[in-house]
Specification:
The protein has about 300 residues and is α/β, with parallel strands linked by helices. The chain contains 15 helices and 15 strands. The strands form three sheets. Strands 7, 8, 10, 12, 13, 14 and 15 form a seven-stranded mixed sheet that branches.
């Protein structure tokens, strides 16, 4: 079977099911597990986000979407040479991956028999169902059930341990410039980990909010998870928030409870590693109950001199 993944989370699911030998193409962003980077690239971005500021990225995305231009290109020649049996894509966000419309159009042009699997999870359970869907499409349903069972056990463990703990005010920043609050599965993860993210909206798209909303909310914990960026970039861009009026007065900043995370790996992608992100989130919100041993490449508690630059 020839499987093509059109989004990083799908690539992680395919590897999680042990089907990597059948994976024939991935996206330019598929970097986990590391061996995925050796697969042929079938999806590329039209913008170089790592070389742009957050505002420049936002402006480019808005401009492209308003003019009907896609943000991604598909290598049709590669697909023509090795016609896919299964293509895994998504219809949740045209900013995160190639649009379903473009995928269907491309597959139609190839005139080959291909099963297009489109994922659209809105919460953690949706992610679990998507793993089962991929397993079914790739003739690996039993493996998918084993993986999902193990992930659900870990989720239930965090949920049980967080019961009875005080619900702390949490703000998950999915973008700094402009400021975006969390959506989709993130507010649900915060609830499971023992907090509330009142600025986020579970099951809905992340949304732009005003900075005054954040100041008024006065979060006790701030988790920085800019979409598509790693921990270092989350830290490098911190001045975009730290120079805003009222930042130093936030409860989270005064208490040193601000965390920079690898949002790309553990929060942006609806795949198995969301559960790793949940376990780390519990440690950020309730270190007294879950411990504070965070892998530095995944999440870091920011020191006072970083939080309050001179």
């Amino acid at each position: 079977m020839k499987i093509y993944s059109f989004l990083p989370s799908a690539t992680e699911i395919v590897y999680g099911l042990g089907l990597e030998d059948q994976l024939c193409g991935v996206t330019h962003e598929c970097d986990y597990p590391p061996q995925a980077t050796r697969k042929p690239i079938v999806i590329k971005s039209r913008i170089s986000s790592q070389l742009m500021s957050q505002r420049e990225i936002e402006d480019s995305v808005v401009s492209s979407m308003s003019h009907g231009h896609g943000l991604y290109t598909i290598d049709k020649d590669l697909l023509e040479r090795q016609k896919p049996d299964v293509v895994i894509t998504q219809e949740l966000c045209d900013v995160c991956s190639v649009s379903l419309r473009d995928v269907l159009s491309t597959i139609h042009e190839l005139s080959g028999k291909c099963n297009v699997v489109s994922l659209k999870p809105r919460g953690l359970e949706g992610v679990m169902e998507d793993i089962l869907t991929v397993g079914e499409a790739c003739h690996a349903r039993a493996r998918a059930e084993v993986l999902v069972d193990s992930l659900r056990l870990r989720i239930d463990s965090i949920k049980t341990s967080a019961q009875g703990l005080p619900r702390r005010r949490v703000f998950c920043a999915e973008w700094y410039d402009p400021v975006f609050a969390s959506g989709h599965w993130i507010p649900e993860m915060v609830e499971i980990a023992g907090g509330h993210d009142r600025l986020g909206r579970a099951g809905e798209d992340s949304r732009r909010i005003s900075w005054t909303d954040v100041v008024s909310y006065d979060p006790e914990t701030v988790i920085l998870m800019p979409c598509g960026f790693d921990t270092s970039r989350a830290m490098d861009d911190l001045p975009l928030l730290a120079t805003k009026p009222g930042w130093s007065g936030l409860d989270a900043v005064r208490g040193g409870r601000v965390y920079a995370t690898n949002g790309s790996a553990y929060y942006s992608r609806p795949g198995p590693r969301l559960v790793d992100g949940l376990e780390m989130m519990a440690k950020m919100i309730h270190p007294e109950a879950f411990g504070d041993d965070l892998p530095p490449e995944a999440a870091r508690r920011l020191s006072p001199h970083i939080l309050r630059p001179a």
